[in-house]
Specification:
Arc Repressor Mutant, subunit A; Neuraminidase; 4-stranded antiparallel β-sheet
Length: about 450
């Protein structure tokens, strides 16, 4: 039996069923978008649904919103118009028949066309390399979204960008904005909840990630505004505010996954400008070149990566045909065989997601690719299945950045119908300080 909805939740469900966005719902009910998101998460949980479409169907089933006649289109309020009988079919001229045959042949040709990031018609869901849209409206203040807290927003809304956590700061670089691909750098101070500008990245790129080693932030490869995929690795030193060149990648890459153990970088999958890649490369501290660690079982775009307890974890991703729910782990010790182990699969297939290893669990955020999602997922070490946990942004949220320290997860920006600037903080581990007596 479904749990009863509150009066406010019923109001929001009715508006969701009419196709209203979170912003429109907030304006009508005079509440913030974040408050709408919290209510939506509660509605989804009570109705046991995972998408706005499923929630709308339940609203109709409950009699909260009358269904439209098929001729009226999508879910919404019935127009109340009487429908006229459809006229009988007219004879089809020979030239119309020929046009239909040619159109059918064209469709067959498109279906047979090989899938790759630039062949948009062959790809389910979003373009793996680019989405065009405006920036979301800035929010105000500090708001609670379940156990998430929305803190100071990025100055520039962006997605498909690089971010790394270093000494209580989050360094954000590059990415796609409403004005196009950028090289701007913005730095968040977690102690003061403020942002400041850093030195621009020399090469503006999108579809990138970042990781910090030895006090410097590495940003490998990326997609330029001209559509080129590059192999250059640019390294930012926050102490001096300067950029330098690191060891170039073996091949040009973007849309990869990146993780670090604090001494080495691990890069997996991606797009090289012609095809998806399966190679996993490592860059060791002080090394002058990347080495091949192993290869993924399949080539992937936009997977997520995390490192913990001597193993590299690769989660989800898009293989050019479908979104994956696989979770893989491989030892990174050079003396251990680089053999993949399969962990429990995600509850939902995800791509463009973020993952962090914090405390005693892996935490997955976002990744709605071909369909929206209403929850994050967590896998405690040794568990046999993933368990849901609250998500601060309900919908097709993807290509955000997720970083963490030993206790806290941060989710920044991304795409959810528009480019985001929000920064959410989640306290995953609590430390209790006990007084010393004796």
């Amino acid at each position: 039996m479904r749990e009863a909805l509150s009066e406010r939740e019923v109001e929001i469900l009715r508006l969701v069923a009419t196709g209203a966005s979170n912003k429109e719902i907030g304006a009508q009910l005079d509440i913030t978008e974040s408050t709408v998101k919290v209510h939506l998460r509660n509605v989804f949980g009570k109705l046991e649904v995972r998408s706005r479409t499923e929630a709308s169907l339940v609203a109709i089933e409950m009699g909260l919103v009358p269904s439209r006649a098929p001729a009226d289109g999508a879910l919404g309020v019935d127009s109340g118009r009487e429908t006229e009988p459809a006229p009988g079919p007219e004879p089809v001229a020979w030239w119309r028949k020929l046009s239909l045959v040619l159109a059918l042949a064209a469709v067959v040709g498109l279906v047979a066309w090989p899938a790759h990031p630039e062949a948009r018609g062959a790809i389910p869901g979003p373009d793996p390399l680019r989405e065009v849209g405006g920036a979301g409206s800035p929010g105000g203040g500090q708001e609670e979204v379940g156990r998430w807290t929305e803190v100071a927003q990025m100055p520039t809304a962006r997605h498909r960008f690089a971010a790394a956590y270093l000494d209580a700061h989050i360094i954000v670089a590059g990415g796609d904005t409403a004005q196009g691909i950028t090289g701007s750098v913005e730095i968040y101070d977690a102690l003061t909840n403020t942002w400041r500008l850093g030195a621009d990245k020399p090469t503006p790129v999108s579809n990138v990630a970042a990781a910090a080693v030895d006090g410097r932030v590495y940003v490998p490869g990326g997609l330029t505004a001209d559509g080129d995929v590059i192999a250059a690795v640019e390294v930012y030193d926050p102490a001096s505010g300067s950029w330098s060149n690191g060891p170039a990648l073996p091949v040009p890459l973007c849309a990869y996954a990146l993780a670090t153990d604090g001494e080495s970088l691990y890069l997996a999958g991606g797009w090289d400008g012609r095809q998806n890649r399966s190679a996993v490369y490592a860059l060791d501290r002080g090394a002058e070149s990347w080495r091949l660690l192993t290869a993924l079982p399949r080539a992937l775009l936009h997977p997520a990566a995390a490192w913990s307890q001597g193993r590299l974890y690769i989660v989800g991703g898009y293989d050019g045909r479908q979104v994956r729910d696989e979770v893989l782990a491989v030892p990174t010790d050079q003396d251990a065989p680089a053999e993949w182990a399969n962990l429990p699969s995600l509850t939902e297939a995800r791509a463009g997601l973020g993952v962090s290893a914090v405390g005693d669990a892996l935490y997955v955020v976002g990744g709605g690719w071909t369909a929206p999602t209403a929850f994050c997922e967590r896998l405690p070490w040794g568990a046999e299945r993933w368990e849901p946990w609250e998500m601060p942004v309900v919908g097709a949220w993807r290509n955000m950045a997720v970083v963490s320290d030993d206790t806290t997860i941060y989710a920044i920006g991304g795409w959810n119908g528009q480019i985001g600037a929000e920064l959410f903080r989640y306290q995953a581990v609590y430390r209790v300080m006990l007084p010393i007596t004796g």
